[in-house]
Amino acid sequence: MPELPEVETIARQLRERGVEGREILAVRIDWPRMVEPLTPAAFAQAICGTKIKTIGRTGKWIHIELSSGQHWMVHLRMAGSFSKRRSKFDRGEILLTGGMKLYFRDTRKFGRWKLVDDPQEILGKLGPDALSTSFTAAYLESLLTTRKRAIKPLLLDQALIAGIGNIYADEALWKTAIHPQRCSSSLAPDERKALYRAIRHVLRIGVQNRGTSLGKGQTNYRDMNGESGQHRQRVKAYGRRGLPCERCKTPLIKIVVAQRGTTLCPTCQVR
Ligand SMILES: [Zn+2]
User: Fold this and answer.
1) Are 203 and 5 in contact (CB under 8 A)?
2) Domain end residue (candidates: 89, 123, 157)
């Protein structure tokens, strides 16, 4: 599932391609559920003829500011992505000035487009973006110390911190040798500081590598050019069950934490 680094990669590639400043000339939507509660016709009518002013990202949301004053909000969910190439998994197609076409590829059909007058209608429900300046060490410390929750589900709670998903939570917890089921308030001050640095580090490295793709399958994350992210080689825990821990050589194990598959080192990460 695309997390902060994968969504950031798509947003950057849209900007680099010069999508900002172009007018939307035509829109085709093939999957009506994607734009609910609007109909495809109503959604298309609302954005056609408007200009794309800016493209931003908060957490796992891409926000596209339109000249109409409305904001086109995109959540990629399981496997959505914008692409410059047509595929049989396209659920939407956008024609922009200059003949530029964008395809919304989504093998799993969970991706969502929303049209709002104020992005805060959606972003206001999220915690600070994990790579923004408002996500500080002091903020994380207050989250951890004032709650008695298992640490991994706390990190995944988008209302507390926006952008972290299963991959980068497992990576940050492995890096800091913290068991994912430990109670948040049990972390020592050193562990809280280390966890903050680890979250920022794994997300930044993920962005630098254009995100993580775990395989070559059609449902795997692809960037706008249809390419896999390069972060796979850097992953230390996620998806490495049975492979040796890079610190202590113990084979990593997979457990379920809050209904999410979780990979960890049973020697380094003790409960
Ligand atoms: Zn280990």
Assistant:
1) yes
2) 123
